[in-house]
Amino acid sequence: MLKIIVLLPLVLSLIWVGYLKVNQYSLADGKQGFKYIFIFSSVIALFFTFMYFVTQ
Question: CA-CA distances (angstroms) from residue 53 to 1, 39, 49, 50?
């Protein structure tokens, strides 16, 4: 499960960088998207951590 928590933001960030490059945006233009990826990944990680402790 730790692999999923670590790989999720990495994969999403790589997809976001690819999208920015294809559409010729700079990384600075996509800064808000990286914030959303971080928040989304944090929520998923907190949910899985909570569920792990609830089911133990």
Answer: 13, 21, 6, 5
